[in-house]
Design brief:
alpha+beta; 156 residues; 9 strands
Length: 156
């Protein structure tokens, strides 16, 4: 008669080794993940501003009237509004974790032809993650009214 029992499962040593390996992998991955989150936060804020500029240009052409993108409150980080005269088209809520600098520009106005008004202006916005200043997105609105996003560089 065979009295040996067949046991299934893990020994304590095997379990501790698995936990130790998982901890080392987590310590390596967390800094990369934090950098990724910082990059995505700045990119998301810049894309929100980009889409608002595109919406304003499209609405200006469609409505055959001036449409403006204006900062809400005292900075672009506090959000912005897209409006035609007193008619509010879209509101962007305040953004957390980013700063948006515009060089003193408080609004961008599109004429009925989709071009910037006044003629010759070319606003540039710099979007930075406050936790990681090496993650910068730049939005430039050309006099033709076309916005363009670019990335790279360190924030001021």
């Amino acid at each position: 008669m065979d009295l040996r029992r067949h046991t299934f499962g893990f020994t304590l040593i095997e379990l501790l080794m698995t936990i130790a390996i998982a901890a080392v992998l987590a310590m390596v991955a967390i800094p990369s993940y934090q950098s990724f989150v910082a990059s995505q936060r700045a990119k998301s804020a810049a894309q929100n501003l980009f889409f608002s500029m595109q919406l304003a240009r499209s609405e200006a052409i469609k409505r055959n009237a001036n449409v403006a993108v204006t900062e809400a409150g005292n900075s672009w980080t506090a959000g912005w509004n897209v409006a035609q005269a007193a008619t509010l088209i879209r509101t962007q809520q305040p953004l957390s974790g980013v700063t948006i600098s515009s060089g003193g520009i408080t609004n961008v106005t599109y004429g009925s032809d989709g071009r910037l008004s006044p003629v010759g202006t070319m606003p540039t916005f710099t979007v930075c993650d406050t936790a990681n200043l090496s993650k910068q997105q730049t939005l430039t609105v050309y006099p033709s009214g076309v916005p363009q996003l670019s990335q790279g560089g360190a924030c001021p």
